[in-house]
Design brief:
Elements (H helix, E strand, L loop, with lengths): L2 H8 L2 H5 L6 E14 L2 E13 L2 H24 L16 H14 L2 E8 L9 H12 L6 H11 L2 E4 H8 L13 H8 L11 E2 L13 H8 L1 H13 L3 E5 L2 E6 L4 H13 L13 E8 L2 E4 L3 E3 L2 E3 L4 E3 L1 H22 L7 H8 L7 H12 L3 H5 L3 H13 L1
Parallel strand pairs: 1-4
Antiparallel strand pairs: 1-2, 3-7, 3-8, 4-5, 6-7, 8-9, 10-11, 11-12
Helix pairs in contact: 1-3, 3-9, 5-9, 10-11, 12-16
Amino acid sequence: MDFSSAELRVRDPRFVASRAFWPFLGFEDRRRQFRTIAGVNRASIKTRPIKYCSHMDGYVFGYYSKMAEDAYEHYLHLHNLSDSVIGYRRGLGSNADMAAEVFSDIGRRRKSTVICLDISSFFDSIDHRALKANLLTVLGLNYLLPDWFAVFKAMTRYSWVDAEELALRLGFSRDAPPRPLCTAAEFRQKVRGGDGVNRDIIRRNFAPYGIPQGSPISAVLSNIFMIEFDHAVRTRVVKRGGLYRRYSDDIIIVCQPSSAKAMLSFVLKEIKKLGSAIEISEEKTEICNFRREGSRLFCDAAVTYLGFTFDGRRVLLRARTLSRYYRRMTYAARGAVRAGGQPDKTYRRKLFREFTHLGKRNFYSYAKKAAAIFDCAGPTDQLRRHFRILHRKLYDEGR
């Protein structure tokens, strides 16, 4: 179906209200990460469940996402929340811009306590009843119209099929899947188990919480779910002369040390109001204290926010972010050597564009822009040996 035909359909509330949404395609995004706990570096695998929708469902979710975003932006403006919620919104700049605002606020204070919190499994824990109530508030409705109810139901009482299990059932390779994955008849017979031979492999969410992460409307729904929390916490923080920012499930508060304990207690109390499934990750909770002595700013622990760390003097790329960059460089160099044979015959130009100062819109250019935003050479200093390291990796892999 072409875009024009799809647009006509998604604009028709009757079409959306009567639509039978397809199950999502689910898989796990696994990333290796390193954390320093009690001075010891520990490796772990971070698993994030991702679910993608069908093309037509994507058009529907995308159209209703735009309507929800417009209504949400209006709500933020009316309630003075535009500067506090910074995740999944347009026109607010890069992560470096957002982090610079917070670090500058810390730098202007004589004393401050920074509270960093993270909501565990955020999308999987969103309470359906609270989400519906807040969605009605943002849309200015007393009840969900049939089309909106169909979209809401598709995002809460959702179903999905595991990508690996689907590939095995239909007999295709995940590296080269067919398009479409299957016909409607194949879906009914082989996936849903209508042929009486294959069992039904569709999984369903019957819990009163959780929405799929990965659809076009997931991000704005997650923000709408948090409106009561954002309003309550921002009001309390600003009243006491502090700063509140939330980027999706990452929360940061800058306040006076004297009010830090009460502030943390208040936030945890408000978190409990979001539903029984919502929890704060104790492992990722950080409390950092800053104090100014003369012209210098000291801290008992550097604050980490949106991929950067700040210790009162310098802004640096987070160690985990830097490790991921060099790890990707290593894998790319290894693959290039295997494809080309010897180091001098590998795809050097492509590697240089992707990983070095010779390329544009890559990690190095991002670090360079961040250094300019922070007015600090820290991010680029961390990468000053990147070109030499890439050459060494090419040589080591090619031996």
